[in-house]
Amino acid sequence: MLQKWITSIGLDIGTSTTKLIVSNLLIANQQNQFTLPGCQIIDRRVTYASSIYTTPMLNEVEIDVQRLTVLLEQEYKNAGISLDQVEAGAVIITGETARKQNAESILHYLAEHAGDFVVATAGADLEGILAAKGSGAIERSAETNAVIANIDVGGGTANIALCQNRKVIETFTLHVGGRLIRLNEDGLVTYVSSHLTEFLKNNSLTLREGEKAAFEKLSSICQLLAEETVNYVKALNQNSSLLVSPHTRSSIHPETIMVSGGVGAMMKKQKPKTVKEVAIHGDVGPLLAYHFQSIQVSQASETTRATVIGAGMQNTEVSGSTVYIGSKRLPLKNIPIIKIPVQQEETWNPQLFQERARAVCMQASTIFSAEDPPAAIALSHFPYCSYKMLQELAKIISDEFIVCFRGAKCLVVLCEQDIAKALGQALAKQRKELEIICLDQIDFTNGDYIDLGLPVAGEAISVSVKTLAFSS
C-alpha cells in the first residue's frame, strides 16, 4: 500500500470573517495491478490556523478578490508554504458573500495558483451542516446517541443543525447575529438590520440608526434574541419572525445545545458592562455571546473555525464502460453528490422510493447553489432490476428532479452497479428536455463532490470523487 503526505488548505469566506487552515493529509493508495486507483485519508494534521480576518468587500455582497489575494499570499508565507506545494483543498463561501460571481472569481484565482480545489457556495442549510461537522456536534451525536443541536452564530445569521447518530436530521436558519446591530463606542447606532424590524415591534422595542443606545436597551435586545433562538431550537416555539425562510419545526427536542461561530467564540469572555465594551468590534457580538452563555447552552469545542474545511482530497477513477452520455457539457467540475437508497425493503416499493427521492432532492435544493447540474443523484442499495422496475425508477427520478430543481437542464445519475446505459436510456425517454449523464461502477459517499472528465477509453470517462475532510 503506497502512502503519501499532501498539503491541503481550507478557506472559509463569510459575510463578516475569513479564515484559513493548512492541513497535512496522509493518503493511502491501495492501487494494484488488478484494481483501479483508490485513495483514502488515513491521517490528518492541522499544521497552521490563520488569524480571523474581516472579509474584504467591495460592497455589501461582492468580495474584493484583489485584497483577498494579498491576504492569502501573506498567510501562505506565515504558514511557511508556497502555492505550488498545495495539492488539494476546499473553499466554502457563506452568508451574503455566497454569490456566483464571487465563487467564479475565486475559483479562477485558485486555478491559476494552486491545486485542484472544491469551491462551493453554501446556502444557509449547507452552512449549518458544515458548522455541525466542524464544531464536533455530529461526532458527539454518535458518541452519546442523543440529539445534539449546533447553533452557528455569525455576523448576520444563526445556522442551526439538529444531529442524531452522526446524521443531520433538521436544519433551519434565524436572523440572529452580532452585526445585525452596529454601533460605535459612544453607543451611536450606525446600522440596524431590517430583519429585526418585526421582532423588535413584537417585543415593544425600537432601535433606529442615529440613535444613541443605552446599555440596558442593547442588553434587553440581545437577551431576547438569544432566548428566541434557543426556544425555537428546543421546539418551545413553533414559529419565529426571525426565520430566514419558512420552516415547520418538528417536535424533536435536542438534549444538548452547542454554540459555534464568531459569537460562540466569545461566550466564555467576561460580560461587557459598558457600551464601549460592547462595541469593541463595532457591533453587539460580545453582548449577544454573554446572553447565550447565561441561558446555559454550551460552547462548541470548535467555534470560529467550525465551518472551515480542514482539507480536501480526490480519488480518481474510471467509470464503467457501458455509460449513457446525453450531454455535450463535459467536462464538469464540483458537482455535489446526494445519495438515495433504491431498496431498503425486502421487495421493490416504488412509493417508498419516491418518498426517499423527494426528501433527499428537496433538502438538496435548499442546501446547494443553483448551478446546472445542481447535484449528482447517486443510487445505492441497488437490487436486481427488472424492465418494469427500471422504467418506474427512471420516472420517479426524473419527476422528482424536475420538481425540486426547477430550471435545471442536466441530470447526472451515478450507479454502483453496471446498469447506467439502460437507466440512462430510460431517463432520456421519460424527459426529452433533460440532458442525461448516467455513469456506473462509481464508488461514492453522500456529501462528496465529483468531477466528470472527457472519455478516456471507448465510452468510459475519467471521474474524480473529492472528499471534504475535517480536522479531528
Task: Walk me through the structure.
The chain has helices spanning 65-79, 100-113, 124-135, 137-144, 197-202, 215-233, 261-265, 275-278, 285-294, 350-367, 387-404, 420-430; strands at residues 2-13, 17-29, 39-49, 53-54, 86-93, 116-121, 148-153, 158-164, 167-174, 181-183, 189-192, 256-260, 298-299, 311-318, 324-326, 332-341, 376-380, 410-415, 435-439, 449-457, 460-469. The protein has 472 residues and is of the alpha/beta class. It has an 8-stranded mixed beta sheet. Strands 1, 2, 3, 4, 5 and 6 form a 6-stranded mixed beta sheet that branches. The longest helix is centred in the middle third of the chain and has 19 residues, at 215-233.
Name its key features.
six-stranded mixed β-sheet; globular; alpha/beta; 472 residues
Would you spell out the secondary-structure blueprint of this structure?
Elements: E1 2-13, E2 17-29, E3 39-49, E4 53-54, H1 65-79, E5 86-93, H2 100-113, E6 116-121, H3 124-135, H4 137-144, E7 148-153, E8 158-164, E9 167-174, E10 181-183, E11 189-192, H5 197-202, H6 215-233, E12 256-260, H7 261-265, H8 275-278, H9 285-294, E13 298-299, E14 311-318, E15 324-326, E16 332-341, H10 350-367, E17 376-380, H11 387-404, E18 410-415, H12 420-430, E19 435-439, E20 449-457, E21 460-469
Parallel strand pairs: 1-5, 5-6, 7-12, 12-13, 16-17, 17-18, 18-19
Antiparallel strand pairs: 1-2, 2-3, 2-4, 7-8, 8-9, 10-11, 14-21, 15-19, 16-20, 20-21
